[in-house]
Structure formats: C-alpha cells, structure tokens
Write a structure and sequence with these properties.
This protein has helices spanning 9-16, 118-128, 131-143, 147-159, 167-179, 183-195, 203-215, 219-232, 238-250, 254-266, 274-286, 290-302, 310-322, 326-338, 346-358, 364-371, 375-387. It is mostly helical and 391 residues long. Helix 5 packs across helix 6 and helix 8 runs antiparallel to helix 9 (238-250). It is elongated and about 75 Å long.
Length: 391
Amino acid sequence: MRAGSPVPLFALLAAMAAGPAFAQDAGGAPPPAAPASAGEAHGAVLPPSTLLPPTLAPAAPGDATGPQAPSSQTPAALAAPVFLPTPLGPAPEPGQALAGATLSSAPALPSGAAPASPTEEAYGAFQRGYYLSALRLAEPLANLGDPAAQTLLGEIYARGLGVPRDEKESARWYGIAAKAGVAEAQFRYALLLIEGRAVERDDATARDLMKAAADAGNPLAAFNYGQMLIQSAPTGGFGEALGYFRMAAEKNVPDAQYALSQLHAYGKGVEKDDTQARHWLTEAARSGHDLAQIELGIWLINGRGGAADPAEGFRWLKGAAERGNPIAVNRIAHLYKDGVGTSRDRAEAAKWTVLARRASNSDAALDGWFRGLPEAEQKAALEAANRFRAG
C-alpha cells in the first residue's frame, strides 16, 4: 500500500461503472471499456498545502532576494486542490521580509487592526513566499510548544521550501502537532504512517488520526477516511462513508464529488438516485476530475439523470479527448461519425479513429467504418492524426 492510495475505492467504482452507457451505432457493438491506464484510478488526495500560495516566481531554495519556490523534489502527487486561507495582508516588496527575523518592514496593518501575533507573522511570511523568514519565526515558537508553528515547520520541511527537503524532520513536527490536535497535522501524519517511509508504518494510528482530522472538518481527511471505511467493510461501509464523502464534496474535493456521484448512481449506502448522481458528477467535472468529465459527457448524451444535451455532452468529451484520454478519444470518433452533439464530419471522425487505434482503444465499428473510406481520406486522416498534440 503506497502513500496516498490507502484504499482501492476507485477501482471498485470503476468496475461498477463499466457497463455500456453510450449512444451506439445501429447494429454496432458498444465501445469497449478503456484499459485501466486510460482513466487511472484516483486514490487519496494529497494537496500541495493549505498554506502554500498557488503561484510563485521560480527561485532557488534559500534565495534571499525574493520568495522561495518549492524544491524541484516536490512529489508530483502533491498537485491541487488547494484550500488557501485568507492572507494576512498585501505582499511586501521582494526581499523585504528576509531582512531579519521579523516582518517589521512589511506593510502596516489597516488602521484599528490588532497587531499580528508571532505565529501570524510566521504564517504571513509563508503565504507571501518568504520561507526562510517563516522558518526563523516559527522555529522558536514550535520549540515552545505552539502547535500551529509546529505544523508550519512540518510543511516547510516536507516540501523543501527554502531548505533541503527533510521527510524525517517534517514527520517529527507533524507528529508533535498531531498529538496537540491540529487537524491538518493529523491528516499529514496519518498519510506518513500509512506510507511507513519517514516513520514506522502504523495503520491503526493512521486511521484514528484520519478520523479525528475528518471529524474536525478537514475535507481531504474526510475523503480519505471514507475510503478507509469502505476498505474495512467492503459490503457495508458505504453508508458510513457517505457522510464523509459528502462533507468533502461540499468543500470542493473533486475525488469526493466523483465518489459521491458513484454511490448515488449505483445505490451504494444510499438509495439509487440518478438526479443526485448527475449533480455530483457535474460538480466533479467542473472541478477538473477527468473520469467525471467523460462520464458526464456520456450521461448528457444519453439523458441519464436529467434532460439529454448532446451538444454539452460532446463538449465535455471533446475536451477530455483533446487532453489525450483514450476513452474520450474513442467516443469523439463515434460522435463525429454519427453526427451526435455536433455536425457529422467524416474527416474528423477518421482522424479520431486513427488516434483511438493508436491509444489501443478502438473498436470493431470504428475499424470497419474506417476501412470503408476511400484511400485518400484514410491518408488525410493519418496525416491529421500525426499533427495532433494532446494538451
């Protein structure tokens, strides 16, 4: 079990959703399900930070002339979503906050506002991208037992922000803050305990900490704890997991929105309700969840869970296809071939058929149709497919 994937929930949900649901050719077979790699299962969600600014100018770790960017060693798994607290105020000029151990040179607080506490100063420096200042401010506070400062140090060392990345030092601070009841630290430390790399693996303690963080309102912990409940009771855990998925979904965790849509769609832990399933599928799609976008496109074309809207369904599938998803590539070829949700276009259909074959996700109906095209059209399709670049 690797970190970030404690529970194979989405493998189960993908299997539940594997049945045919698509407008098919007359007499044609439904397109086959894509291989597992086509819509890779989502596991536990690892956010980059509840503290980290979304964009920073590149700078080497420890750069004293401006905000320090995350180390190139930041794991790829730590990509969005971000739940960013309100910053303490406008950013200072580059380098100002690095002049000393305080933020005395930062812009003054609005008239009548209370002075920032030392902990707030540390978090303010962090949010502005001044990680060395944040470290200097947080370290003495953490050593004096400030759980918020301890959590901040865990974050800085976990990502190598302004300092070399140090998983063990990060785990130490997250562990101390988790014992003090900080939900963010409980969530982070639970993931480390599941992974068992920087600390000794301890699934039981990880589960307890994940539940505590979830019950405290951490949305990512809620989603992950929901997965844990299903893992521990595959036939009956859906009902208890539902509430945790809903909590996370309402706080815009895309994986939770998708999971909730699947529970409603297949009546797992709740009464089957296609209308609710489509609602959460839409929310997940709008949040950028790739599988949700594909399924929503199919639901819109078929009119499942609400009125049919082939044009909107085509739009969702086309976007996914242009990003190279093999399932969507296959569907778009069919839609262009049959004129569903868009004008019939043999040239586009032929191009997407070639791309579907290259993605190992073609089918007999597309292959037979393509073989019946004139040789000149086949050659033009091959050339168009060669020019295509997913992105």
